[in-house]
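Fill in residues.
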């Protein structure tokens, strides 16, 4: 199984529009971060978690020819607004796109993308099939099992996912003990680390490191990073041997 880090930035991406800070002006491509999204490649099939504003650009950059499903963690715009860009897959492969999301997130999708679900339907709209997921029930797409993990983004429930020995968690600030138990034994972990300073709804780097220390994966990668975290190269040098900053385009191999 391969994990493609399509985007590793926070809601504004890096560089931030109009920002003169050194990180936003960096020439290091690892400091250029599109909005957070990953693609899981398993037995030649692709599964995407989250489709934000950069979804089209991410899929073109990764040369993606088809995806089996889109899975949403939550309804914030930086994680779902790219849904319209499933249309090429509708056209090329003559199929509706399976979309997996909680009932609350589905309601947001129906509100934001009203034209998909409300007649009269005009030609060329995205075609999706809604599938309801929840923290209580693992689900399988083809032969790939996803275990949802609820985290709190301030007070908003967000779903992370464990797939085999890999776990992906974004927009977490707190995690209940019973949800932590779902993560234990993970070999490869990708988790949000927004910045150095504390934040109301995201792990900062200190909290992310404490989380890694508790879970003890073989390898951890920090994602959903803002320009306030600092330069990729400099922050990487400060991290423990089993922890690295993720960057856009990074591909992880997970047994």
């Amino acid at each position: 199984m391969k994990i493609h880090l399509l985007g590793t930035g926070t809601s504004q991406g890096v560089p931030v529009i109009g920002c003169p800070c050194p990180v936003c002006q960096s020439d290091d491509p690892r400091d250029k971060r599109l909005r957070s999204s990953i693609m899981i490649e398993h037995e030649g099939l692709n599964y995407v978690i989250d489709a934000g504003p950069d979804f089209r650009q991410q899929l073109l950059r990764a040369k993606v020819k088809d995806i089996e499903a889109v899975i949403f963690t939550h309804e914030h715009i930086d994680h779902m607004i790219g849904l319209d860009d499933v249309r090429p897959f509708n056209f090329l492969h003559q199929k509706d796109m399976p979309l997996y999301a909680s009932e609350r997130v589905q309601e947001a999708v129906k509100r934001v993308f009203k034209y998909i679900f409300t007649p009269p339907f005009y030609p060329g709209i995205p075609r999706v099939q809604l599938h309801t997921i929840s923290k209580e029930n693992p689900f399988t797409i083809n032969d790939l099992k996803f275990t949802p993990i609820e985290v709190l983004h301030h007070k908003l429930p967000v779903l992370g996912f464990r797939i085999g020995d890999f776990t992906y968690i974004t927009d977490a600030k707190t995690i209940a003990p019973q949800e932590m138990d779902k993560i234990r034994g993970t070999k490869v972990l990708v988790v949000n680390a927004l910045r150095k300073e504390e934040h109301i709804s995201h792990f900062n780097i200190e909290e992310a490191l404490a989380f890694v220390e508790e879970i003890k994966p073989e390898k951890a990668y920090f994602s959903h990073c803002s320009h306030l975290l600092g330069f990729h190269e400099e922050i990487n040098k400060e991290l423990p041997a089993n922890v690295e900053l993720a960057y856009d385009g990074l591909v992880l191999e997970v047994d």
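The mean pLDDT is 97.
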